[in-house]
Write a structure and sequence with these properties.
With 114 residues, this protein is mainly α. It has six helices and no strands.
Length: 114
């Protein structure tokens, strides 16, 4: 991973994915970690833009991302929610320059709520 980006520890990655459906509104939440971390807020803006772009314009890349991410996360098939998750996962992978193996390690840190 790149040293100049926030560490994708379990707390950070779970915070990001708690807002996978609405990254823009993360700033409005009362989570002190988020509001007090200017660097993380800026990163979330980048992820939000990349997620939207990936979702809208990169369906083939999302399918490739599915083949990696589905090893860790049990996705619904042909779901808008799955596409949003994959778009964000692809953004994280590309911005951080993660290999498939590194991405899988990061995804394993996510706590999935049912």
């Amino acid at each position: 991973m790149r040293n100049d980006l926030p560490d994708l520890n379990a707390k950070c990655i779970n915070t990001i994915f708690n807002y996978v459906y609405d990254l823009e509104n993360i700033k409005n939440e009362n989570d002190g970690i988020i509001k007090n971390d200017v660097k993380l807020l800026a990163l979330l803006d980048v992820f939000s833009a990349m997620q939207k772009y990936n979702y809208q314009f990169r369906p083939n890349d999302l399918r490739e991302t599915y083949s990696i991410a589905s090893k860790v996360i049990d996705f619904e098939i042909n779901s808008e929610g799955t596409s949003l998750w994959l778009a964000l996962i692809l953004a994280i992978k590309e911005l951080y320059g993660l290999s498939d193996t590194e991405l899988i390690k990061i995804l394993k840190k996510i706590t999935i709520r049912k």
